[in-house]
């Protein structure tokens, strides 16, 4: 056996003995950690929420659309079901004070605080572990929601009974079917609707019904 053959055999043997290089180990570990994280997000929520709403983050365009409908407004803003905290963070940057998110999932709350820290806003925005259906909204004049259609009827009642007249509610992707929006922005999945609570009360639109915005609204799941 010459030297070249011996080298080839040694390489082949080593290759067979250690199939996992550092790259594969890193990828494998990353995948396992991701699956554990995603699983715990789902479990965390399943244990606590009576209505199942998955975590689907707003896209950058959707957040921009929401903020565009709130332009010129100020004061307190609450994001109901704040996910990883991105809407609250953007609202704070746009000048809303205080900017608060309600979220049940503890992992998402951790993530929100990390994002706030990364953005230099840690301690300036608040993420509260509380059921959004139990949050006190009586002194809140700006509300954002991106939730599932199954949550909308429950929310309509709560918002109408608690919010002050001057409040504005911005709903993303799933409109409040019984309410007439004052403004609409964006298209398709990134469409958002703004509702003036005084107008909704005046019109007596307290329950879900016919959709007043005719174009392109689907209330199917995410
Ligand atoms: C579609 S995500 C929207 C996240 C974020 N608002 C955004 O726009 O990126 C809905 C969020 O609502 C949360 N959620 C569902 N039910 C809730 C409840 N009863 N109280 C608080 N948060 C809830 C979910 O955990 C999820 O993170």
UniProtKB/TrEMBL annotation:
GO terms for biological process: methylation; regulation of mitochondrial ATP synthesis coupled proton transport. Keywords: Membrane, Methyltransferase, S-adenosyl-L-methionine, Transferase, Transmembrane, Transmembrane helix. InterPro entries: FAM173A/B, SAM-dependent_MTases_sf. GO terms for cellular component: mitochondrion. GO terms for molecular function: protein-lysine N-methyltransferase activity. The keyword DNA damage does not apply. The keyword Ubl conjugation does not apply. SUPFAM superfamilies: S-adenosyl-L-methionine-dependent methyltransferases. It comes from the Eukaryota. The chain crosses the membrane at residues 23-45. Belongs to the ANT/ATPSC lysine N-methyltransferase family. This is Uncharacterized protein. It comes from Varanus komodoensis.
């Amino acid at each position: 056996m010459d030297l070249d053959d011996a080298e080839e055999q040694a390489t082949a043997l080593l290759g067979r003995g250690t199939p996992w290089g550092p790259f594969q180990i890193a990828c494998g570990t990353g995948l396992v950690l991701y699956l554990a994280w995603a699983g715990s997000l789902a479990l965390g929520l399943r244990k606590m929420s009576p209505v199942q709403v998955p975590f689907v983050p707003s896209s950058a365009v959707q957040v921009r659309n929401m903020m565009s409908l709130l332009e010129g407004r100020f004061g307190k803003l609450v994001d109901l079901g704040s996910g990883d905290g991105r809407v609250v963070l953007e609202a704070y940057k746009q000048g809303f004070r205080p900017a608060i998110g309600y979220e049940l999932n503890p992992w998402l709350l951790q993530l929100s605080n990390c994002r706030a820290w990364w953005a230099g806003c840690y301690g300036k925005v608040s993420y509260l572990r509380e059921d959004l259906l139990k949050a006190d909204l009586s002194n809140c004049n700006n509300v954002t929601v991106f939730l599932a259609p199954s949550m909308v009827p429950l929310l309509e009642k709560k918002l109408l009974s608690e919010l002050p007249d001057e409040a504005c509610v911005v709903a993303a992707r799933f409109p409040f079917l019984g309410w007439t929006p004052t403004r609409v922005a964006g298209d398709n999945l990134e469409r958002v609707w703004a509702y003036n609570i005084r107008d909704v009360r005046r019109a007596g639109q307290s329950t879900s019904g016919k959709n007043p915005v005719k174009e392109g609204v689907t209330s199917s799941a995410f």
